[in-house]
Write a structure and sequence with these properties.
By secondary structure, this protein is mostly helical. About 80% of the residues lie in helices and about 0% in strands. About 10% of the residues are buried.
Length: about 180
Amino acid sequence: MVFKASVKIPKTISFSLRHLAAPCLAAVLCSGITAAYADSIYDANRLLRVTETGDRFESMALQQTRDIIRTYSSIVSMSAEVALPLNLKRTIAACYAEAYAWHKFRPGIAQILVQVLDQKELLLLIDFYSSRSLPPREIPAFKSVIRKADQIQRLSADYIYAHADSCVDRDAELIFSYLGSL
């Protein structure tokens, strides 16, 4: 025996449900986009780890900091015939270490990678840098990715320039204060 239930849905409820359907569908689609974006960000960060970009970035920042301090020391030595004290050099170095810490730039660089490279390209680079090899069928795709390197480099340099704190004014203030105390 089969029972049929007949339930009448009031028009106001039916109207509300129809109008909720579009936002719900949009939310589901957006969550899919958000999940895809999260996957891409995860892969971009993974690529940055595999390529040791953070280590190389911090190494270059440290070398540039040494060069800046050496330049300051030379200028002070030539003009005032004194050497910069070690504690002043350390204070200057600490400012640059904070201003150019990799953790400040990693999220933006990862976003640039996601902006320029698609998921397949990110995975191709991760595989390449992980194994240092490439299947022959992937060579055309790899060449396509390599052509995007200049764009990534330019966008990354612009990002770093726009988001880096400057230590120059503080350095000058410290050095002039030191020279004034002599």
